[in-house]
Each structure stands twice: as structure tokens, then as C-alpha cells.
């Protein structure tokens, strides 16, 4: 649960902006999307390895990002 401390004189727009930033930093939406379907640990590991290989290729200059 996200709690935003707002002062009495603070504008509602500023409080909403604070809430949106806090929501994004907490990565709640990512967690919800991740929990919608089950992914096997082997699939998670494979995607992690493929991302690392891709980043390595970009760093070495084989692929232009």
C-alpha cells in the first residue's frame, strides 16, 4: 500500500505526481503483470541469458542499438 504524505497547503496535482512517482518506483504494475501467468524457471533463465548475450553483442559493437 502506498502512502503519500501531503501538507494541507499542497496542491492536489503535486500529491498526484508524488503518488505516480512512488507507484512507478515500487514496480507494482510490473509485479501484477508478472503474476498473471506462470513462467517456468527454465524459461526465466533462458530469457535472462539471451538478454545478457544481446547486451554483450551491443557492447562489443556487433549489433548497433
Order of helices and strands: HHH
Instruction: Give the percentage of residues in beta strands.
Output: under 5%
Number of strands: 0
Helical element count? Answer: 3
Largest sheet: none
What is the count of structural domains?
Answer: 1
End-to-end separation in angstroms reads 38 Å
Gyration radius, to the nearest Å?
19 Å
What is the global morphology?
Answer: elongated
Helix proportion range: 55-70%
Derived structural class: mainly alpha
Mean pLDDT: 90
Low-confidence stretches: none
Textual characterization of the structure:
This protein has one domain (12-60). Helix content is 66%, strand content 0%. It has helices at 12-26, 28-35, 41-60. The model has no long low-confidence stretch (mean pLDDT 90).
How do the strands and helices of this protein lay out in sequence?
Elements: H1 12-26, H2 28-35, H3 41-60
Concise synopsis of the structure shown:
With 65 residues, the protein is an all-alpha fold. Helix content is 66%, strand content 0%.
Structure characteristics:
65 residues; 0% strand; mainly alpha
